[in-house]
């Protein structure tokens, strides 16, 4: 259980900026959105938060891309779960657990 920034969609009017959602997650899978933010990449790989969006304005602004934003968040979580379980399986075979 934790929180994660996930599901980025580029902002067309501002190159380098994106809209992302902050989620409550369980095993990397998003459970509930906490908020939506306009973000950009900062110095040394850090993320800069510029503005918090209200959910109603987010739906109006993104239109059909709103579903894309949510889908990307779930897809990122699923990919992370697959990677973690693949690493566990590889390490188990490497250290002789399944021989």
What spatial form do the alpha-carbon principal axes imply? elongated
Strand order of the largest sheet: 1-2-3-4
Uncertain runs are none
The helix/strand order is: EEEEHH
Radius of gyration: 17 Å
How many helices? The count is 2
Task: Write down the overall mean pLDDT.
Answer: 84
Distance between the termini: 33 Å
Going by helix content, strand content and strand pairing, the class is: alpha+beta
The biggest sheet amounts to: 4 strands, antiparallel
Q: Care to count the β-strands?
A: 4
Estimate the helix proportion, in percent: 25-40%
Content of β-strand: 35-45%
Structure description:
With 99 residues, the chain is an alpha+beta fold. It is built from two helices and four strands. The protein has helices at 55-62, 65-94, and strands at residues 2-10, 17-26, 29-41, 47-53. The protein has a four-stranded antiparallel sheet with strand order 1-2-3-4. The longest helix is centred in the C-terminal third of the chain and has 30 residues, at 65-94. It is elongated, with a radius of gyration of 17 Å. The model has no long low-confidence stretch (mean pLDDT 84).
């Amino acid at each position: 259980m934790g929180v994660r920034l996930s599901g980025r969609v580029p902002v067309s009017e501002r190159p380098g900026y994106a809209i992302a959602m902050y989620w409550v997650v369980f095993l990397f899978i998003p459970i509930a959105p906490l908020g939506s933010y306009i973000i950009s990449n900062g110095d040394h790989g850090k993320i800069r938060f510029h503005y918090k969006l209200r959910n109603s304005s987010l739906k109006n602004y993104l239109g059909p891309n709103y579903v894309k934003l949510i889908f990307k968040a779930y897809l990122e979580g699923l990919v992370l779960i697959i990677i973690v379980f693949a690493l566990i399986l590889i390490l188990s075979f490497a250290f002789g657990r399944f021989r």
